[in-house]
Every structure is written in C-alpha cells, then in structure tokens.
Q: What sequence folds into this?
C-alpha cells in the first residue's frame, strides 16, 4: 500500500523532510568502529558482541510504512531527529526520540501505525557531534 501522507506528531515542528531516495530497513553498526582508540577504559576487556547497535524500521512481523516520495517513516524520523538533536544527545536518546516520532505517525487513509525498534549492547554513551572534526 502506498501511503500518500503521514501526519507528524503535534509536539514537533513541521519537519520539511528532504527526499530520501535510498530506502533502508535497518541500521546495524559496531559502535566502537566510530571511536578512536579503545572504546573502554584502559585495561578493560570488552566481549566481541559488545558495543553493537541495531535499529530497525519496525518490530518483527509488522510492516514498515513509507511515503512514495519521501521514503520510510523510519528514515524520515532519523533525518528529522538527528538533524535537530545529534549535536547534544547520545545515540540511545536519539533513537528513543525516533521511536516516539515513528509511533506518533499514522496513515492518512486508515490510521495505520508502526513503531521502530532498537537493540543494543552498548557499554558507554555514544555521541556523534556532527560538524566537529
């Protein structure tokens, strides 16, 4: 089903999302790959499966809704939330906001909803600090 419009949550500004041509359904990364040096305190050993984050457009056995021109609600929400809060919030806070944003949206025709999902094994807070090199 092609969703023509979604209503953004009322507690956020009008998003003005840009066109998102690549359609992704999940984001999976080894967070320590983004950190310089060891992700833990000196001398600490971290299990191989530590510091992994998997963000999914929806929970198991449910569909991911998308706008035919703007892309999935999940990617739209990531762009909206990360562009406004990534400079000051850690990644789990960002994805909590993404989950809330996606959960508040609904299809214009029948009021269908979805919620995104995040699984993680982070051992520390992670920040992006966009714009800082």
A:
């Amino acid at each position: 089903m092609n969703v023509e419009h979604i209503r953004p949550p009322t507690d956020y500004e009008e998003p003005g999302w840009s066109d998102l041509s690549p359609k992704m359904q999940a984001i999976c990364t080894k967070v320590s790959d983004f950190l310089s040096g060891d992700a833990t305190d000196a001398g600490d050993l971290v299990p191989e499966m530590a510091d992994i984050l998997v963000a999914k457009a929806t929970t198991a056995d449910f569909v991911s809704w998308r706008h035919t021109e703007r892309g999935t609600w999940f990617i739209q929400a990531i762009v909206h939330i990360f562009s406004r809060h990534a400079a000051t919030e850690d990644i789990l806070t960002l994805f909590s906001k993404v989950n809330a944003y996606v959960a508040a949206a609904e299809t214009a025709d029948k009021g269908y909803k979805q919620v995104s999902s995040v699984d993680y094994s982070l051992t520390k807070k992670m920040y992006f600090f966009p714009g800082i090199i």
